[in-house]
Design a protein that fits this description.
With 323 residues, the chain is of the alpha/beta class. The chain has helices at 53-60, 83-92, 110-120, 125-138, 155-167, 185-202, 213-219, 237-242, 247-254, 261-266, and strands spanning 10-21, 25-37, 42-46, 68-73, 76-77, 93-96, 173-177, 205-210, 222-227, 230-236, 307-310, 313-315. The protein has one domain (2-242): P-loop containing nucleotide triphosphate hydrolases (Rossmann fold). Helices cover 31% and strands 23% of the residues.
Length: 323
């Protein structure tokens, strides 16, 4: 069935997250972001650091309360859940964090870390022991690791412990917040492949937050590109990488190293001039205007609307009006 005919598992609607900075200033980390995620798919959320992708993920699991807008999970507004629904939501939606060094409590053993969620959900002690062992085996560790502490593991192993912890409560949807960016390149592929296998075996749905576009291409069904708190482009992976429309997406993709020397010669690297502007009190214009080689007067006066330019492909750029 086509996605459009199905009810999305997650709906993010006009989500805003602003942080007060001083008396009169506001840092608009996420500003009017809307997208859907369907059951069983992986959506990649990409952009430079500071673009609001991680903040979006954190609002979706209520680590941050949205300033405005809504997030629906399975048709329900996540800010209006009853106590029982909230407990279920915490079980169904899990997060894997960027930094496997900081996200595991250094004073807890692996048995306690992975078993914590099971304990909270009332699993009997004997059952927890068995489940923790199974979960460790699922992520490529074993029962000998149960009594050890996080500092006794490598970065890749710690991320595996983080994944086992997320899986412990049998979730449906996992927000993977830059899960491999703190790992050695040699380990990154192992973790990505494991996430892919787990998705297939367990029918998981992922939001994969990352700044590395080549990794996102490999794992995602659809990709959403963010710039300075807003979505600038969204499309199926194949479409986005072969037919990018937004000048920012084009520049990001042109910076991916090409293994084939002939293709590398043919590809023109599109430079992005200047630094990413401050998200504090941004002007009502295209946020990419100062760095865009196609910017016109209109771009400095009007926020471009994110609109569908062909089925499933949305772009927020005034250039699209000329097409
Ligand atoms: Fe560039 Fe204007 Fe499009 Fe913004 S709206 S990306 S400034 S052409």
């Amino acid at each position: 069935m086509e996605n459009k005919e199905k009810q999305p598992l997650v709906q993010v609607k006009h989500l805003c997250k602003y942080f007060k900075v001083g008396r009169h200033a506001e840092l608009k980390a996420v500003d009017d972001v809307t997208f859907d995620i369907y059951k069983g798919e992986t959506v990649g959320l990409v952009g430079e650091s500071g673009c609001g992708k991680s903040t979006t993920g954190r609002c979706m699991i209520r680590l941050y309360e949205p300033t405005k807008g809504e997030v629906f999970y399975d048709g329900k507004d996540i800010t209006k859940l009853s106590k029982a629904e909230q407990k279920k939501f915490c079980q169904k939606v899990q997060m894997i964090f960027q930094n496997p060094y900081a996200s595991l409590n250094s004073r807890m053993t692996v048995r306690e870390i992975v078993g914590e969620g099971l304990k909270q959900h009332g699993t009997p002690k004997k059952e927890i022991e068995k489940r923790v062992q199974e979960l460790l085996e699922t992520v490529g560790l074993n029962k000998d690791h149960m009594s050890r502490f996080p500092h006794e593991f490598s970065g890749g192993q710690r991320q595996r412990i983080g994944i086992a912890r997320a899986l412990s409560v049998d979730p449906e949807f996992i927000i993977c917040d830059e899960p491999i960016s703190a790992l050695d390149v040699s380990i990154q592929a192992q973790v990505i492949n494991m996430l892919k296998d787990l998705q297939e075996q367990r029918g998981l749905t992922y939001l994969f937050v990352a700044h590395d576009l080549s990794v996102v291409k490999y794992i995602s069904d659809r990709v959403i590109v963010m710039y300075l708190g807003m979505v600038v482009e969204e499309a199926e992976t194949e479409e986005l990488y072969s037919n990018p429309q937004h000048p920012y997406t084009k520049a990001l993709l042109s910076a991916i190293p090409e293994a084939d020397p002939d293709k590398a010669k043919a590809n023109r690297r599109i430079p992005i001039k200047g630094e990413i502007p401050s998200p504090i009190n941004p002007k009502a214009c295209c946020r990419f205007a100062e760095r865009c080689e196609y910017a016109t007067e209109r771009c400095f006066k009007e926020v471009p609307e994110l609109r569908e330019v062909c089925p499933g492909h949305k772009v927020a750029c005034h250039l699209m009006d000329e097409k």
